[in-house]
Design goal:
144 residues; alpha+beta; OB fold (Dihydrolipoamide Acetyltransferase, E2P); 2 domains; five-stranded mixed barrel; 5 strands; 46% helix; SigmaE_reg_RseC_MucC; Positive regulator of sigma(E), RseC/MucC
Length: 144
C-alpha cells in the first residue's frame, strides 16, 4: 500500500509524517474520520530516502504486514478474552463453584485479554526493531 505525506519531524533514521487517511478508513469509522475531524494522521516511518522536514514523500506500507499487525493488536486479545471466558467457565463448573460463574468467567476472560495486551506491549520493541511492521519512506517527490 503506497501513500504520500509530508515530513514534519526527523530524528536519526526515522521521520514523523503527516499523511491523509486511506479511503478504506472511511468505511471503518473507528477513528472518527466521518465526524468532521481532520483527515490527516501522523505516523512514524523509516527514512530510507533521507527526506528532510517539509519534503513531500512516498511511503510504502506492506499490506500483508498491516494485516498481521491488525491481527496482533485486535484478534489475539479478543481470542484470549474468549478463551479465558470459555475455559474458566468449564473449570469453575468442574470444581463446583456455586457462586456467580458468569461474572467470574467474564472477570477471568478480561484478565486473559489484559495479559495479551501486556505481552504485546512487551514484544513491541522487538517488532519495531524488525522493521517488518514499520512504514518506509521510499521516495522524495518534492523537496522543500
Amino acid at each position: 500500500m503506497r501513500q504520500t505525506g509530508v515530513v514534519v519531524d526527523k530524528n536519526e533514521n526515522m521521520a514523523i509524517l503527516k499523511i491523509q487517511r486511506h479511503s478504506a478508513c472511511a468505511s471503518c469509522g473507528a477513528c472518527g474520520m466521518g465526524s468532521g475531524e481532520s483527515k490527516d494522521i501522523t505516523i512514524e516511518a523509516l527514512n530510507k530516502a533521507d527526506a528532510n522536514i517539509g519534503d513531500f514523500v512516498e511511503v510504502d506500507i506492506n499490506a500483508p504486514n498491516v494485516l498481521k499487525a491488525a491481527i496482533i493488536a485486535y484478534v489475539i486479545p479478543l481470542f484470549m478474552l474468549l478463551v479465558g471466558i470459555i475455559v474458566s467457565d468449564k473449570i469453575l463448573k468442574f470444581i463446583n463453584y456455586n457462586k456467580n460463574i458468569e461474572t467470574m468467567s467474564a472477570i477471568i476472560g478480561f484478565g486473559f485479554m489484559v495479559m495479551a495486551f501486556v505481552i504485546i506491549k512487551v514484544y513491541e520493541p522487538r517488532l519495531k526493531k524488525s522493521e517488518e511492521y514499520i512504514p518506509i519512506i521510499t521516495n522524495v517527490i518534492n523537496q522543500k
